[in-house]
Amino acid sequence: MNTAPSRPILRLADLREIERRPASAVPRDTASHNFLMERAGAAAAEVAAAMLAGAAAPPLIVCGPGNNGGDGFVVARLLRQKGFAPIVVFAGDAARLPEDARSAHAAWLAAGGSCIDAIPDQPFALAIDALFGIGLARPVEGRPAELIARINALPCPVLALDIPSGLDSETGRIMGCAVRANHTATFIALKPGLLTAAGPDCRGEISVHELGLQVGSAAGRTVAPDLFATGLQARPRDSHKGSFGSAAILGGAPGMAGAALLAGRAALKLGAGRVYVGMLERLVVDPAQPELMLRDPGDAIAHATALAIGPGLGQSDAALDLLRRVASADFSLVVDADALNLLAAHPVLLNQFARRAAPTLLTPHPAEAARLLATATEAVQADRLGHALELAKRCNAHVVLKGCGSVIAAPDGHWWINTTGNAGLASAGSGDVLTGIIVALLAQGWTVQDALLAAVHLHGAAADELAEHLGGNVGIAAGELIAAARSIFNRWIASAH
Question: What is the pLDDT of the chain when averaged over all its residues?
Answer without folding.
Answer: 95
